[in-house]
Write a structure and sequence with these properties.
Elements: H1 25-28, H2 32-47, H3 56-61, H4 94-117, H5 124-133, H6 149-152, E1 156-160, E2 166-170, H7 210-218, H8 222-232, H9 236-240, H10 254-266, H11 282-300, E3 309-310, E4 323-324, E5 329-334, E6 340-342, H12 365-381, H13 388-391, H14 400-407, H15 438-441, E7 454-465, E8 473-479, E9 495-501, H16 511-515, E10 520-526, H17 528-534, H18 542-552, E11 553-559, E12 564-565, E13 574-583, E14 592-599, H19 600-603
Antiparallel strand pairs: 1-2, 3-4, 5-6, 7-10, 7-13, 8-9, 8-11, 11-12, 13-14
Helix pairs in contact: 2-4, 2-5, 4-5, 4-11, 8-12, 10-11, 14-17
Bound molecules: tyrosine.
């Protein structure tokens, strides 16, 4: 049997880059030719028989349900107790597994696009070139948390068809229509004919609450979490996955932030459940962003790549409770007829690049690192990092009015040149500074001297057993009053951020999930923006913030259905508040964290609080 080799897309070029750019979705939707081809190609693979290997259904099915082999990879599950999808979660393989996964969908879409381009009777050469340049777009949720209407609200989009006419067509980015609903799907997926985001019920007739989706994403603090990930995490165990990291970090893993996006996009729909998430077409633009953050992080941490670690829940081909590492097969992605891709051979992008790397000498590791650091500061450091509150309040009192003005300043809206060129990435960058972490160059806030370059950063660390809730869930943090109606929690005035568990709902199917009751997730919710917005404090000094948080910080646990989980039902939950003193030594690209202090006393003695009874500042 001949295997379907995963190669990624081929051909094409972007000026100044080794291969064509993947484009940010806000830029991509403005590229008339590429967007028209992408929409038609996605329609084509979505419409293919669900038994065809390169159909959207089969590709989406690699992630979880239906638990059957794809292209002969593992004719039966290697461990009947393991998670039966192929996708690796909760292990060091998380970032590298999803790299060939996105390559696979990218190549299937491009293959369809090349055929479609050949049928154009108007501007054929332009469309054929656009098909060669076509790559999977990414959704940079750290820059602009809400995707464009073409992704979340339009049921029809306008494209140029092969006869050169502008036509409205059903939008395949909005949802996937099952044909048929696979008999393996459990409820509620068995009753939903399409993928759904924020379904209003479990019934077949459920509608979607897109305004809840939008408001939830706006409050998701994705930029702050991403800036912290890129600038403060330097080891693969802490970077790669959502299990307890290196102990000293106060920043989320790539997987942890990714989990948040899944749950905040899905509500109680498909994206919130790993077993069906990849059927929602937004999955692949989310994962292209995850892949881009892998590229940016690896440029900032040259030479750091996968280290060995435990396999967590295991997969269809990887037994639970074993060690995985750089040579573990990333099944089902065949690299040759006899070998799978491994983490060791995805250390660079394959047939695509990201705009941040354009015009860099890729062999010059130090120059690449410096250039990427500058872009990370431009994109994520200036306007909504932990320091944002201070940029414009030098010497003033930290009033909630002045802060809310700052923290709600919208990002520069994406625009494009309107040409077919694929070099418009600059248009979506916040062009507010020269690439230095500007806020640190301003005063660090009231209570400190004008030229002080230090700041206390406050974070709630969450640890909780992955399978204790029995599906995806959120731990929400509030400063002050919590609304009575749990449906209002995610958008409440007092809500400051959440930790998200992205967990298979059909855990009863997964014997290992029972066996592995002890897998503990770890994540972080940053509190500075919330403190600045809600409190009347004028400093982040521990002497002031510690008593404030002791009285005002509260947390709740909620399923994705918004059903409240009583804290007594999650005995493993442990919330510990930490503070980290950040400084900016002259010439440093990023703030430098001092030792993280654990303020156990803030949460000790409350349900889900720290187990340590001292407010000592030790770990
Ligand atoms: N190899 C990185 C990106 C990178 C490129 C050049 C470097 O010098 C460093 C890192 C990736 O995974 O995409």
């Amino acid at each position: 049997m001949s295997h379907y080799l995963v190669t990624g897309a081929t051909g094409g070029s972007t000026s100044g880059a080794g291969a064509p750019n993947r484009l940010e979705i806000n830029v991509f939707v403005k590229q008339e030719d590429q967007f028209s081809l992408y929409i038609q190609a996605l329609q084509l693979i979505s419409g293919k028989s669900q038994s065809e290997i390169d159909s959207f259904f089969q590709i989406g099915g690699i992630h979880g349900l239906p638990y059957v082999p794809w292209d002969g990879a593992g004719s039966k599950p290697v461990d009947p107790d393991a998670w039966e999808g192929y996708c690796t979660h909760g292990s060091v393989l998380f970032p590298t597994f999803h790299r060939p996964y996105v390559l696979l969908v990218e190549q299937a879409i491009q293959a369809a696009a090349v055929n479609i381009a050949a049928t154009y009777t108007v501007d054929k050469a332009r469309y054929q070139q656009a098909a060669l340049n076509l790559r999977q777009p990414y959704w940079d949720w750290a820059l602009k948390p809400v995707p464009p209407p073409e992704v979340i609200s339009l049921d029809e989009v306008t494209i140029v068809n092969p006869s050169g006419q502008k036509v409205s067509v059903a939008n395949p980015l909005r949802r996937y229509t099952f044909h048929p609903i696979d008999p393996s799907f459990p409820d509620p997926y068995a009753s939903w004919p399409t993928t759904l985001r924020y379904p209003t019920s479990d019934d077949a007739s459920a509608s979607e609450d897109i305004s809840q989706l939008t408001r939830t994403l706006e409050n998701a603090q994705l930029r702050t979490k991403t800036y912290n990930l890129l600038t403060r995490v330097h080891t693969w165990p802490a970077f790669s996955n959502h299990t307890v990291g290196d102990g000293g970090s106060a920043s989320n893993s790539l997987e942890g932030i990714h989990d948040s996006v899944h749950v905040d996009v899905g509500g109680n729909g498909h994206m919130s459940d790993p077993s069906v998430a990849a059927f929602d077409p937004i999955f692949f633009m989310h994962h292209a962003q995850v892949d881009r953050l892998l590229s940016l992080w690896s440029a900032l941490n040259p030479g750091v790549w996968i280290t060995n670690g435990p396999s967590g829940d295991g997969t269809w081909t990887i037994p639970a409770d074993t060690e995985v590492g750089k040579n573990t097969n990333l099944a089902p992605f065949w690299k040759t007829q006899t070998q799978y891709w491994t983490s060791a051979n995805v250390t660079s992008t394959q047939g695509y690049t990201y705009p941040e790397f354009n015009n860099l000498n890729m062999g010059d590791t130090a120059a690449v690192k410096a250039a990427i650091a500058k872009q990370v500061n431009q994109l994520y450091g200036g306007t909504s990092s932990i320091f944002s509150s201070f940029a414009a309040t030098a010497g003033q009192s930290l009033s909630s009015e002045s802060i809310s003005k700052i923290t709600t300043t919208p990002t520069t809206a994406p625009t494009t040149s309107g040409t077919a060129k694929v070099s418009s990435d600059k248009d979506i960058q916040a062009q507010s500074n020269d690439g230095a972490p500007q806020v640190m160059l301003a005063s660090v806030g009231p209570g400190n001297s004008q030229d002080s370059k230090e700041l206390w950063e406050w974070t709630a660390r969450v640890q909780i057993k992955k399978h204790e809730v029995g599906g995806s869930f959120k731990v929400l943090f509030f400063l002050g009053n919590i609304p009575n109606d749990p449906r209002e929690w995610s958008t409440a005035e007092s809500f400051v951020g959440a930790f998200h568990g992205f967990v298979n709902t059909s855990a009863e199917r997964c014997a290992n999930c029972r066996r592995q009751q002890d897998v503990v997730l770890e994540g972080f919710v940053h509190l500075n923006d919330g403190i600045a917005k809600i409190s009347n404090l004028n400093t982040f000094d521990p002497a002031v913030v510690e008593p404030y948080l002791t009285s005002n910080l509260h947390w709740r646990v909620q399923k994705v259905s918004t059903e409240v989980v009583d804290l007594s039902a999650v005995p493993s939950l442990q919330v510990t508040v930490t503070s980290t003193r950040l400084t900016l030594p002259p010439g440093a690209p990023f703030p430098v964290p001092g030792e993280t202090q654990h303020h156990h006393g803030i949460t000790h003695g409350r349900p889900g609080g720290s187990r340590q009874d001292t407010s000592s500042e030790s770990a």
